[in-house]
Structures are given as structure tokens and as C-alpha cells.
Amino acid sequence: MLKHLSRRNFLRTGAAVAAGAAALAGTNVAAPVSASPQAGQHNHGEDEHGGMDMMGASPGFATKLDIPPATADPMQILTDFDMGQVSQLPDGRTLREYQVTAYDREIEVAKGVAFPAWTYNGRVPGPTFRCTEGDLVRVKFVNAGSHPHTIHFHGIHAANQDGVFEPVPAGGTFIYEFTAEPFGLQLYHCHVMPLKKHIHKGLYGTFIIDPKTPRPPAREMVMVMNGFDLDGNGENELYTVNGVAFYFQDHPIQIKKGELVRVYLVNITEFDLINSLHIHANFFQYYPTGTSLTPSEYTDTVMLCQGQRGIMEFTYHHTGRFMFHAHQSEFAELGWMGFFEVVE
Question: How far is CA 10 from the centre of its chain?
Fold first, then answer.
């Protein structure tokens, strides 16, 4: 285990230098839910913890994976929308039920680099939940991890569904139930203290509430910006979109010339005040939080604090390979780098 691996020292290691150099050169290295108890009901396991997680800060570091890779790769996460198990309520509303399990899992965050994560459904970021404004959302949360966890959903709901004062102990369950509102791009994350540790370790994901009148058809994708502190010193050594550094450099996202592309962009980066996204040779319409159907800005770069999110819409009118990346150069050199491959 490395006691201190600074960002710049990590960049000097062979794997990161090779990936960064290739990126800067522009090369291509190539369950259904069971019957649920009443909303808000705890099922405490034998291991009863309080709401405070005072575990030490160092998450550990490994350079070789000894376990299978994560259950979903960044390309799958890009377009994997969990619509839940759908049924109709007597009052005509739509009920969407979701199953979420938190457990500890080692994941690959760069080629040959493993990270001991805390996950929702075995992946970082967690599943992208999707529903329509006015739907009744019911989430059965099972904590199969080693520490107390919750799910805090951004949006409007009752206090006892907020995932703050109801820490779920290891082995416990909790039912979240609320009406989905307002429409827009939301997110969710664990809210157990120390908050920065539970978020940084991987307990977060995207929550999309569609308007009742759908947005225009588009090629839709989810991009979650984050970082990884590999040696527990409170400083990220890697930056990613959807969990693996340089993934979209090695696997460009193919889109068609002239098609409308809609990106649901979420920033959940810990230990840095802001993150950003810049697309090359193009501009996009930007909808902060997605709560309005009218764009607020036409730009090629957006800066976001932690928890900020927004919807980007754009169309490419030329074929070829176009870069997108964080417009903090260090973030791009440490993994936050990718390409769109525009084809006829």
C-alpha cells in the first residue's frame, strides 16, 4: 500500500503517463421487487450501528485486480436506465418499484488499478433510476455492506424519506416512498457521516424525473463526473466519467451526424470544489437541473460544484473524432478525457 501518492506523482507512473500522452495526442488506445413493507419501515439486522461511521480515512490501494470486474462498464452506464417494476395504483397513478442493495466491492477504476468501493447494486456510479413526474416511487433498500448507509434523493418528499436521520445498519432494510417531483435531473447519494467518505467511496447515482410531456426524441446518455482518492490523503489521483479513467478515450462514443444528443450531466466529485465538461468544435444548449424546458445558455463549457447537474443538448454537423474533457487540464491528464466518433 502506498502511504502518499500525489496527483502529480501518480501522473508520472507508467500507466497514467501512457494514457495521458495518448489522450493529448488524440490517439485511440484502443430483479423484480418483492412485496414491500410500509414506507419508512426499518428492519434492523443483528449488527445495530448508530448514524456515525468513524472508520479511518484510508481506503487502501491495489495495483492488480484479484476479482472479476464491476457488473457494468462506463459504456453500459451511459445508456442503462432503470425504469423499475411498473404497476398501476387504484387511483390511476403509476407505481414504480426499485430494488437497491449496498455492499462493499473492489472495482477497477483504471487499467490495472483497483479501488475498495462501497456500492449501490455493485457499481459506481449506482443505477440510473428513471420515472415520470407524478409517479409514486418505492425503493426497497437493503444494506449488505459493512457500515450504516442511507439513500438521500434530491427532489421534494417528506422528512422521514430524506435519508438523513434513518441510518440503515449493516443487515438492515428501509423502504423509501414518495411522489416523483419536480421533473428534471436529480441525483441520490448516501448521507451517513462522515459524508465525504460515504460519497467518495461510491455511494451515489443519477435520478431522472421526466416531464409529463416528454422531451423531443434524442440519443440520450448519462455522464457522472467523479474522482478517486487512491491513498486516503484527501486528494484525488484519478478523475473519471462513469467510473473508469480514460475509458471514453479508449472506447469513443459513436453518434450519428445530425442526430440530437442529450447528455444528463451530474457532478459528484469529492475533494475538489468544481468539475467541468468542455466539448470540442461544437456548442450545446444547457438546461440547469433540467427543471425548465427552455435552455439558459448556449455554450461549449459548463462548470459544476458537487451536486450540481444539468442537461446538455447538441448536434454534430461534421463527421470525425471530437474530444470532450474536463476544462481543468490536470483533471483531463488524470483520466477525465474522451471522444465522440461522429459517423454518417
Answer: 23
From residue 42, alpha-carbon distances to 82, 130, 141, 158 in Å are: 24, 25, 10, 16
Higher pLDDT residue, 13 or 341?
341
336: closest CA among 7, 2, 93? 7
Instruction: Give pLDDT tens digits for 285-310.
Output: 999 999 999 999 999 999 999 999 99
For residue 9, give the H/E element and its range. Answer: helix 7-11
**Grid coordinates of 275:** 468539475
For residue 338, which of 221, 185, 229, 230 has the smallest C-alpha distance? Answer: 221
Q: Which fold has domain 216-343?
A: Immunoglobulin-like (2.60.40)
Q: How far apart are CA 312 and CA 322, in angstroms?
A: 16
CA dihedral 179, 182, 187, 191 (to 10 degrees): -60
Q: For residues 259 and 253, what is the distance between their CA atoms, to the nearest angstrom? A: 13
Which superfamily does CATH assign the domain made up of 70-210 to? Cupredoxins -  blue copper proteins (2.60.40.420)
Residue 7: the pLDDT is 61
Q: Which three cell numbers stand for residue 343?
A: 459517423
Who has greater pLDDT, 18 or 173? 173
In terms of C-beta density within 10 A (0-12 exposed, 13-18 middle, 19 or more buried), how is residue 116 classed? middle
Which residue is associated with the grid cell 414504480?
96
Outline which parts of the chain fall under CATH 2.60.40.420. Answer: 70-210, 216-343
pTM for this model (two decimals): 0.84
